[in-house]
Amino acid sequence: KQTIFSGIQPTGIMTLGNYLGAIKNWVELQNTYNCAYCIVNMHAITVKQDPKALKQHTLEAYALMLACGVDPEKSVAFIQSHVTTHAELNWVLACSTQFGELSRMTQFKDKSKRYPDNINAGLFTYPVLMVADILLYQSNLVPVGIDQKQHLELTRDVAIRFNNTYGNTFTIPEPYIPKQGAKIMSLADPTKKMSKSDDNVNGFISILDKPETIVKKFKRAVTDSDMEVAYREGKDGINNLMTILSTVTGDSFETIERDFAGKGYGDFKTAVGEAVAEHLRPVRENFDRLMADKSYLESCYKRGAEQAEKISRRTMEKVYKKIGFLPR
Ligand code: AQP
Fold it and tell me: What is the pTM of this model?
């Protein structure tokens, strides 16, 4: 069986973008692969976090991952800071990643523009920690949204270079990017990616938003000044809504165009909102149930950490041996 690794940051409640671009695929893949899924709280602190909120968001993100269908009996589901190998491999790989390579990362450039008063070293080396996360599990595939493609390319470069220098150590991973939903755009500005830490709450759908809030946000979604529900260049807002509807219902763009021919944008937006609200209903219900049983959640993430520690420690020992660290 091949291995899958992926993670999500507890920087707020997951959005519809995180769900359609990543988590939905995590769930589908767990029947065919050995999967390790992680709440990456060490990544989250590259941006200022309130400690109390981070703790709460970490637990909620873990519960949400299970609520979406990640099954802790099938997959290794854990919290990054519980498994110390991530920090250990991060250091080793930081010493074989070049400053120039990291300077080219567009996420760093975007985030340093967004948070100009906190361009910390961790934000710069964020991709190295991600490389470590992936390589520790000898992952073959990494399901991510398109925004993470560049980090995946870096992962491959670092792994290939390490293998060439020290002999075969790491599996070289491939990105697994969904055909549809790989980049869900903001509802308030469809030229911008939907993000959970967006200041404008109308820009994103949180997967825990109430059905009426979801419909209201879709009704407000920015579109264009013509009247046609059609997937076409220049119609970013409509294209985004059509992508969302198609991903949640399975209907093709042709079907959607036919269904909404001659109808106004108002009807279309309401229909998308209702379809999304319905699609997310079981997730919300599962989440409420899980959050009411903290001891179950705790037992899941403890076991996940033990399993992840065991798998990743094997890689770590191999790495230390290869680079010439004297064993204890
Ligand atoms: N808009 C999106 N469309 C499709 N996929 C997306 N992902 C994120 N946004 C979209 C994918 O979700 C996974 C987890 O993302 P993350 O939490 O690790 O970080 P991110 O990419 O920075 O996500 P956000 O929501 O934009 O977080 P903030 O606001 O904290 O920066 C990844 O696989 C990502 O590709």
Answer: 0.94
